[in-house]
Every structure is written in structure tokens, then in C-alpha cells.
Amino acid sequence: MKGWLHLACIALMCLLPAATRAAPAVTASQDRRIAITFDDLPWASLDPNTPLPAQGTVPPRIAAESVRLLQAIEGTGTPAIGFVNSARLLVGGQPQADRTAMLDAWLDAGLELGNHTDTHADLHIVGIQAYEDDILACDRVLRPLLAKRGREPQWFRHPYLRTGRTPEDKAAMGAFLAAHGYRIAPVTVTSSDWIWAAAYAKALDRGDAATQAKLRAQYVPYLLRRVNYFEHRSIRLLGYALPQVMLLHANALNADTYPDFVAGLRARGYRFVDLDEAMRDPAYRRADKFTGALGTSWIHRWAIAAGRSWKFYGGEPTSPKWVTDLAGVPPE
């Protein structure tokens, strides 16, 4: 089947009733490992147009949320890598010390940083040359920041998980990134955490503590269902539980729920590893031939390349309508 037909099948399967979504049993011997990654550092809602408070350029609420996220990661003892959009460090085109300090705090906590382009550019829209320029703009910020600690950037995450509209574009990007010392950071566990985060931000803005609590209580089980879904899909495709790579975003909701999410995964038997360890699994050496616009999991990409039928893709957990309504986005 062609790639776009597969994507249509994925969308249709998401509408099937739960009874048709049975997943294979997972044995106790499965070695469950997961690497946690965060996109859009220093903060997902921090951009050059953020209204400035009286002092500094980071609004106090964002500064406090960032501290909470780092404390949550450190407190759980989990490795993590954050992917940086360097334009978020600017105001009026000028770098801001307090924004850069948020990245320094990340490194001081013993965590990693990777390149996510300067402006969160979309490769499928801007084209190869502009995209490469955006990568290099972020590299010029990230490389000296890491060099102060005797390190250098090695991981790149494609914004929107769009990796090239043609095989030729994908090959060109792979060669460019390798020439600059970068490895592509894939994602096997995707989620719509950005939708939940938008709803949570609105509840925070209006001081609605009840809705905040309701979102937190339902968000963690939603994330755990997403992990479970892709775990089972990896078993169906590969025959074992793949060491997963999960994409989250640097936002208030993740800051306030991360310890509960970690506890839920540990209760299921997961160990937390860094991105490099997860990527040692041979499955990650499979070719990614996907050229569609959908930011889908690498497990689905490999399944499409393997010619899996439409039955493989169904049952992805979706966000409840009350959450999408509150976030102001269409239902999934």
C-alpha cells in the first residue's frame, strides 16, 4: 500500500470500538526500557514575542514551572534530554541571559541537550536549504554552551517529526546531519501532550483549581495508555518490547505530573535509560522511508515499510473531547 493510504487507514482505525483493539499479552520476561525526551526548550510557551514582566524576560510563572520540571526529573532519578529551539532564547533578536540560564540549569542537573532547529522550522514547508540554515543557527548557540562543559551536541530532533517529503530530501538531510556530528533522535511513543498542556494553561490562567486537578488526574493514565499501545505494537512488529523513545514537551502540565507518570511506568516494570542506550537496539537501524506529513511513531513507519495491513495501526488512545474542547482544537 502507498504511504498516504496507510495514513488514511490509521485515521480510520482510531474510530473503531475498543473491542476491536485487542493487544497481545505481554510476558513478565519483557525488558521494558524507555528514554524520555523533551522538545521545545527552554520552554514550549516561551518565544520572542512573550510579553515581558517588569524584570527579566522570563515570566515568573514560566520560571517557576521550569524549576518544577527540573526538580521532578532530578527527584525521580531519570535520564532525559531536552531539544532546544534557540530562537526561544531571544527577545527583539537579542539573546537573553535569563533564558539561557534555563538551559544552564538543565545541564547543571546532569541532563542532555540536543538541536531542534532555531525557529522550530517545518522541513516540508521551508525546504532543504532554509532548514539546514535553521539547524546551523541553533548549533551556533548550542555548541559553545555545551563546550563549556567539555561536551558537544550529538542529537537532532526534527520539528513536527517531518523528516523529508521525498527519499532524496531524506537522504540529503541524513548526510547533512552526519557531516555536522548529529544523529537523528526518533520517537516511538507519540502523544498529544500539547493538547492537554494547552487546556492546562487555560485552567491555570483562570485559576480553575478543580479543572487543573481533573486534567492532572486523567493525563497520566492517558500517557500510560500511549506507552502501552506502542509497547504492544512493537511486540507485534518486532517480536519483543522495544526500548522506547518518548516525546514530551517542556510545559507546566508535565512539570506537575512527571513524578506520577514515572511511578506509573515503574509499576509496569519500566527502566529509564538515556537516548544512546535505547538507540543501541538493532531495530533503530531499520531504514526510515516514511515521507508523509503526519508526525507518526517510528514503529508505524517501520510497519508501513514492512507492508503491514491497516489492522496493525488501530486503537491509538486519543484525548477526550472535553480536553480538546478546553484546548480549543478539533477532536482527535
UniProtKB/TrEMBL annotation:
Does the record bear Acetylation in its keywords? no
What species does this protein belong to? Answer: Rhodanobacter denitrificans
Which intervals hold domain NodB homology? 30-166
Gene Ontology MF terms:
hydrolase activity, acting on carbon-nitrogen (but not peptide) bonds; hydrolase activity, acting on glycosyl bonds; metal ion binding
Indicate what this protein is called per its UniProt record.
Putative xylanase/chitin deacetylase
Record keywords: Carbohydrate metabolism, Glycosidase, Hydrolase, Metal-binding, Polysaccharide degradation, Signal, Xylan degradation
Q: Identify the CDD domains for this entry.
A: CE4_NodB_like_1 (cd10960)
List GO terms (cellular component aspect): membrane
What's an example GO BP annotation here?
xylan catabolic process
Q: Pfam families, alphabetically?
A: Polysacc_deac_1
Q: Where is the signal peptide?
A: 1-22
